[in-house]
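Assemble and predict.
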Amino acid sequence: MVQKTNYQDEFEREHRQSLYKSPSDDIQDKIVEVILFSCGLVSVLTTIGIIVIIFQVTWEFFQKVPVNKFLFDTQWTPLFADQHFGIWPLVNGTLLTTAIAMLVAVPLGLCSAIYLSEYAQPKVAAILRPAVELLAGIPTVVNGYFALLFLTPLLRNVLPLEIFNALSAGVMMGVMIIPTVGSISLDAISSVPRSLREGAYGLGLTKLEALLRIVLPAALSGIIASIILGISRAVGETMTVLIAAGQQPKLTVNPMESIETMTAYMAQISGGDSPRNSINYDTLYAVGAVLFLITLALNIFSHWFANRFKEKYE
Amino acid sequence: MATAFSDDSQEFTPNIERRESIGKIFEYIFLLGLLLGLFILALLLFDIGKDGLARFLTPGFLTETPSRFPDKGGILPAIVSSVSLGVIVILVAVPIGVGAALYLEEYAPKAWWTDIIEINISNLAGVPSIVYGLLGLGVFNYLLGFGPALISGALTLSLLSLPVIIVTSREAIRSVPDSLRHASYGLGITKWQTVSNHVLPYAIPGILTGVIISVSRAIGDAASLIVVGAVSFLTFNPGLFQRFMALPIQIYSYITRPEPGFSNAAAATIIALLAVILVLNGIAIYIRQRFSAIH
C-alpha cells in the first residue's frame, strides 16, 4: 500500500515534468537543426565561391586585356607570341559542336520519349528506359575515345574529315544528351492528362494525330525545357570535344574541320600547370566566366519553362 | 464502314485505313529512333571490348604501375586514386548532402531564403564539371594551400556530387508518408528522434540509389580533375596530399599518346572504368528493385 503511493508520487512528478517541457525546447534538437542547416549552407557557399573566384580572376584579366579586345577581336591566340584574346573563335567552336549535338539528341531523344510513353508495353518500357538512360552514364572520356577512334575513321570513308573534327565530337555529344532530352520529355508527355487523349480519340483522331495535335502541344513547355537543358549540357561538356574536336580555335561553320571549344581550351591550358597570376591562368577564368554565364542563363531559362508546365497540370 | 461514312459526306473523307497506316509507320520511326541510340551504345561497348579486351587480360594490368611501353605495366595508381576519390566523396558529400536534404524537407520554414537555397541547388546541378574545377583550383589548391593533391581533387568531386545527392535524397525523404511522422509525434517523440528513427530508415533505399548514381558519375569525371591538376603519369599510389590521377585521366593520357598500342591500353582502362561504374549501378538498381517490392 505504502509502496503504491510512492510509485504514484513519482509518476506524478515525472508526468508534470514532461508536460512543462515542449519538444522545441530540447537542446539536442536545436543543435541538430543548426548542423543540418549548415549542410544546406554548403551549397550556397559553393555558388558564392564559384562566382567570387571566377569573377575576381576575370576582373584581373580585364586589367591586363581590355574588354573590347576580348569581345571584338576575331582571333584567340593567347599562347602565341602575337597574342590575341578574341573569345569568338572559342564560342564559335562551342556553338558548332552544340548545334550538331542537338541535331542528334532532339530527334532521337523525342523518338525515345514518345515511343516509351505512348507505344511501348509497360514491361518493355521498364527495360528500355534504363537502357536509354545508360547513355548518360557513360563517362564522357569514353565518348571521346569512340568519336576519335571509331566514328571519325568510319566517316572518313565517305566525308573529307580532318582527324580532329567538330562532326564526330558533336554526334557523340548528342548521343550522350539523348537521355537528358528523352527523360524530361517523357515525364512531360506522360503527365498530359488521359482525358485530353480520350477526348481526341472520341473525335475520331488516330493515335498519331492525337499525339501530334493534342499531346505534344500540351507537353511542349516540358519538351522545350528538356531541349534547353540539353543545350546547357552540350555547352559545358569537355572531354568529348577535347579529345575528338581538336585544339584550333577558329571562326568556321564547317563541321569537318578541327575547332576548339571553350571547355577544350580550359582543359588544354590547365594541363600545363599555369602559375597563378600568369596570363594563361587568367584566360582560364575569363573563358570559364563566359561558360558559367551561358550555362547559368540556359539553366534558369529551362527551369522557368519546366515550372510553367508544372503549374498547368498539378 | 469507312466507305459508308465517306459516301454520306462530300467534304470529309475519314480515310481511316490510310491514316492508321501512317500512324503505324510513325510508330516504327519512333521505335527506330529509340533503337538507334541503343545501337550506338552497343557499338561503343563492342568497339571498346574489341580494342581493349586482350590488353585488359594481360597479366598485371590491374596490379602493376604504368610503363612507358603500351603493352607493359598496369594502371594500379589510377585505380587506387579513383577508389580513394570515390571513398572521400562518399565520406564528405553524403553526410552533407543528406543533411541538407533533411533540413530542406523536414526543418526549413517557408521563407525567401529557403527558396534561394532551393533555386541555388537546382542551378548548381547544371553547372558544368569544368567550372567546379575552377572552384577547386581557386579554393583547395591556392586558398587552402593543398596544391594539386588528391584531397583537392576529392573535395572538388564532392562539391560536384552534392547537388545530385541533395535532389535525390529530398525526393526519397518526401516520399515518406506523413502518417509515420504524425504517429511518431503523437507519441511525444522529438523531431530529431522522429527523423532519425523513422523518416531516414524509410528513405534510405532512395537515398542510396542517388548516392551511388552520383558517385559513379564522380568516378567517371575527368574535366574538373584536369583543371585541379591531376597528372597524366603516376608510378606510385598517391597519399592524401600527393599528386594524383584517376581512371578517366589515365584513359585521356593514353588516348593522347601518338604511338600505336596506347589506344588499346586506353580501351583496356575504359573496360576497368566501365566495370566499376556498372557494378555500382547494378547495386543501385538492385537496391531500388528490392525495396520498392517491400514498400
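Chain B has two domains: 16-51, 76-294.
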